[in-house]
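hey so u asked for the seq, here:
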Amino acid sequence: MFLHFGESTTLLALIYMYDILITGSSPTQISSLITKLDSVFALRDLGRLFYFLDIEVSYNEGSIHLSQTKYTSDLLHRIATFDTKPAKPLVLLDKIYPGSMVILWKRSLNIAI
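ran it, structure tokens below
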């Protein structure tokens, strides 16, 4: 992830393998960065963002919604648990002690700057 903060503008570039997402507050800066990158690398503009790193992007009246619904559904299908019955709730403890929580699924992205 590369960030550039100007006096009145922000530019953000997310790079993962062969995928690059460029956004910011200034269309001029975005175009300039894309032109510079295109002079060094072979770029292809894929248009409006709909998926990036298994995150689905949808647009509504001036807002953006990020979701991993498709990723979660694909994961459940892959491990053949999509059609299983839900488990009965566990008995709740009166106290939760630090370190007593179990992480069932953790997905992380390591970014070197």
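Strands lie at 2-5, 10-16, 19-24, 51-52, 55-60, 63-67. Confidence is low (pLDDT under 50) at residues 92-113.
lmk if thats what u needed
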